[in-house]
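Give me structure tokens for this 155-residue protein.
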Amino acid sequence: MTQPHEPRPSGPAPWWFPATYALHAAEEFWTGETFPVWISRFAGVHFTATAFLWLNGIAMAVMLLAAAGAARGVRWLAVTLATVVAINGTAHLVGSLATWTWSPGVVTGTLLWLPLGLSTLVHARRALPGRTLLGAAALGFAAHAVVSGIVLCST
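Here you go.
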């Protein structure tokens, strides 16, 4: 059995993460009232457009590095990315339902990120050892928690 860290080409699949991230960030920034305005209004924070651009620029760089690693065979990185996008897509959907408003990002989060994240996790469940899967998912959860904390602590 191939180990989770051994090189094994995975094709273009990991590159769907940064590609869909570009679409997701565009939806958040250029549609509706924009995500920075929406989250500031509902969470009582002051999350600026500048902070949004910086945070998403850094996150995109990290996602590109993780996708490159996953494409080169570090398969657990795809699980980390899948966890991040599945949580984010779910958060946008829950945020929209809880506020009865449109959370900028809910369309790409629901139509792109939930299917991409969940299908990647289902595939990984069969391809990776349980401890590797859980560790990679925990890293994705932690990464999303850090980003959410930055946003929700904006003043």
